[in-house]
Amino acid sequence: MEYIYMGIGGFFGAVLRYLITIYFTKMHRTVFPIETFMINILGSFLLSFITNFTMDKYKINTNLRLAITTGFIGAFTTFSTFSMETINLLKAREIYIALNYVILSIIGGLLMSYLGFEFADKIFEFLEEREKE
């Protein structure tokens, strides 16, 4: 049954990624692959936030958590596209942009993951304080 939940989540994550890619491709014509960068940064934040909040703090149904994390966020984010875009930048001799893309993606992803965990902790602390009142 969990495969169905992951598949449903994956469907919506992939569709959202596609729509965001289409939007950014039409609106922002740059060499830097901003659409994949933004998707992966947002996905890093969401995965850390949801995982921390729903596993340690606020328990939700395991199938729902799988649908959101492994399904939706797993299909939404894309390491393979990041890798391919980096190789394409290198082949096009856009070395500076490729290096910036890799560095910003790694540092940005780690920073957003950290912020996702911290944000979940702050929300949980706030909810605990409200329950005590």
UniProtKB/TrEMBL annotation:
State what protein this is by name.
Fluoride-specific ion channel FluC
- Superkingdom in the source lineage: Bacteria
Which HAMAP family has this protein been placed in? FluC
Cellular location of this protein? Answer: Cell membrane
Primary location class:
membrane
Instruction: Name the reaction it catalyses.
Output: fluoride(in) = fluoride(out)
Record membrane topology: Multi-pass membrane protein
The protein's gene is named: fluC
Q: Which InterPro entries match?
A: FluC
Gene Ontology BP annotations = cellular detoxification of fluoride
* A GO MF term: metal ion binding
Residues annotated as binding Na(+):
74, 77
Q: What is one term from the GO cellular component aspect held by the record?
A: plasma membrane
Keywords, sorted A to Z = Cell membrane, Ion channel, Ion transport, Membrane, Metal-binding, Sodium, Transmembrane, Transmembrane helix, Transport
> What residues form the membrane-spanning segments?
6-25, 37-54, 66-84, 96-117
General function of this protein: Fluoride-specific ion channel. Important for reducing fluoride concentration in the cell, thus reducing its toxicity.
State the species of origin. Answer: Thermoanaerobacter italicus (strain DSM 9252 / Ab9)
